[in-house]
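for the writeup, i need someone to sanity check this before i put it in the appendix. the sequnce is what the collaborator sent (i think, or maybe the updated version? ugh). structure was predicted straight from it, no edits. if anything looks off just tell me and ill rerun, i have time this weekend
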Amino acid sequence: GVFQPPFPDHYLLNALLISADRWVYFPNRLVVVGVSSKSFGHYFYSQNAAEGLAYLGISTDFPAAIPGNDLLNGMCLWLMRLKERYRDELAGIDIDRPGYLIRQTYFWLLQYRYRRIGTRDLVHRFGMLAIRDWILLIRGAIRPSIFLRLFRSIGMLRKSHAEALWNNLVPLEGPRDIREFAQWLDR
């Protein structure tokens, strides 16, 4: 049904966005997203994505996947499933392969920068790219929106490992435990 692997919450939210007749914007916080020891995010941000996938019994592999960021591969997979399920609604909309390649190769560079992979692995990964992917990668990199994003991302290579992994995540200030968190929510 509506809970499709590899990440059912991502699939469901997007399925709802596609299928709902109307949406209401409500600016108050209704949901706080966190990372628990039972979530894939815990494994991913602890650099144990393979262990997290095994724990959940899921795979983020698909025919045109390249190794690297399992969250990105998982996103591509649930986007493909949405395209299958909502064929009419998503007719003419393609998954951005150049964007995917740019994000995945950028992830490789981050892994190399923070010594998660060595030079040999980095060279091997770039060698895995088909000629068509190289063309798409170069074409994608010169798109103005992608180029500007890449330019801003270069600063990430100067950040610490934790800052790079948790980019754009905002830690909750104040609550130290679940009781204080509940009180914070009530306010």
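DSSP finds ten helices and no strands in the chain. The chain has a mean pLDDT of 81.
thx in advance!!
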